[in-house]
Every structure is written in C-alpha cells, then in structure tokens.
Amino acid sequence: MKKALTIAGSDSGGGAGIQADLKTFSAFGVYGMSAITALTAQNTVGVQGIFDVSPDFVRKQIESIMTDIGTDAAKTGMLSNAAIVKTVAEAVRTFRIPNLVVDPVMVAKGGDPLLAGDARQAIREELLPLATVMTPNIFEAEALLACRIENLDGMKDAARELKKIGPPWVVLTGGSLDIASRAIDVVYDGSDYVVLQSDRLESKNTHGSGCTFASAIAAGLARGLGPLAAVRRAKDFITEAIRSGYPVGGGHSPPNHLTGVQSNWA
User: Fold this and answer.
1) In which band, very low, low, confident or very high, does the pLDDT at 198 lie, cut at 50, 70 and 90?
2) What is the domain partition of the chain in residue ranges?
3) Where are the beta strands (DSSP E) in the chain?
4) CA nearest 234: which of 135, 139, 165, 137?
5) DSSP 3-state assignment of 103?
6) Residue 206: which residues within 8 A CB-CB, separation 6 or more?
7) Architecture in CATH for domain 3-243
8) What is the DSSP letter of 166?
9) Distance separating the N- and C-terminal Cα atoms of the chain
10) Contact, 222 vs 236, CB < 8 A?
11) Percent of the chain beyond pLDDT 90?
C-alpha cells in the first residue's frame, strides 16, 4: 500500500486539518500518517482556541514516521508559526521527503488567523522551494505576493510570480472568485498554463475544502500519478465532495471526504 503523511493542525470539528487529510487519504486507498503541528478548538462556525505543538515535538513525530514507515508523499497544512515552518523544512531536507504538497494555510474559513505574520516569509524562503506542488487559494496568494487578484488574468500573473519562489508546480485555486459562474483553478509549471474548470457550487459544504484538495493531490502523487494528473483527479474529487456534502453544525459544513467510497452501511 502506498503511504502519505500529513503535517498539519488538528481540527476538533473533524472538517479540516489532519482529520480531513486522513479521511481523504483513505478515500484514495492510501495509508495515512500524521505529524500534528497544533491543536485547535474548532467547529463549523469558528476557531475558539489554538495550542501550538513545540517545534521539537513536531520534528520528533516526523522522525518517528520517516525512520520506520517512510512515505511516498507528504502534505503540509497549518504550520502556525515560523519556528514550526523552519523545523518542518529541515525535516523535509533531512529525510528527503518526496512529493511534497504545500498548502500555505493562513486563515480558517470563518476568518480566524491560523498562521503568525512572521511565518509567511519562512514559508516563502524555507518551505516552498522544497515543494513539488503548492496549492494557495486567492487570499493566500495575495498575502504571499502582496497583490490583488480579481480575474483570470490576475490568477495567471500570480501563478507566474509564485513559480519564481521555487515549486515546480503552482495550483492557484479560484473558487472564491465568480468567473462566468465557474470554479476556476490555474495550474502553472513554468511553461504552460492549464485552466481547470468545474461548476461553481453555491454550497456551505466547504469547511476544509483546501485541506481536502491538497491531500487529494498528495494521495495521487503517492499512487504514482504525475503532478498534473494528480491535480486533475483532486479537482474532480473535491468538486464532487462539495456537491455531496452534508450539513454538520451551524456554520460552514465539511465536504464529503468519502465521496465515491461505497459505505458498508449503504
């Protein structure tokens, strides 16, 4: 069985973070492992508290996995502060972790900050150059580049600038923009732009959608897909997961992480 590691925060509500990642890995038939960077008291309406794990213990978790089980791909999510970002980057280099997908998580769906301000530069300088794929949304790209993105041309310009930071593949997700009533993502490898489109669903089942999308890419890479094929597969997956999501709680519900998986209880 192929293996994938998520290095991210824990969402007590189960919709985002490592919970979303591990569910997604299972949906792809990949053995999932985790290194927890932070604990959050969180539900569908917001984040009520954050407790950061010490950088040393984050590294210890990664070391435990990599010196025994190993991994075929990894995905980072909420890294909380600059010290954790630098620790994760060092571990990626030391253990030569392959097929790294970086989701530069900065803000929760409800607007609560999940990344300290000084960590943005650490992500740019330390982590993104090690990534195979990065998956920022519009707001994260704007924060990383200090710019505004308002249309498809702006997305392409931003993807080009993000590519200069180092990752071979940039996937800029544009679900927050209403472009001809489509959910448009821009994929850029330094040579060609690929525009992926799907129905723009009017849905509240989007809590953790970015985590789910990034972990689906990592799972595809773990299973041997090339980056573009993994992104296309993840795009199909998250679109259907949002479409088939179900109401949980009083705020933004999660997508259906097990979409396409036959339930034993069906």
Assistant:
1) confident
2) 3-243
3) 3-11, 31-43, 46-52, 73-76, 100-102, 133-134, 169-173, 182-188, 193-199
4) 135
5) coil
6) 109, 175, 242, 245, 252, 253, 255
7) 3-Layer(aba) Sandwich (3.40)
8) S
9) 26
10) no
11) 79
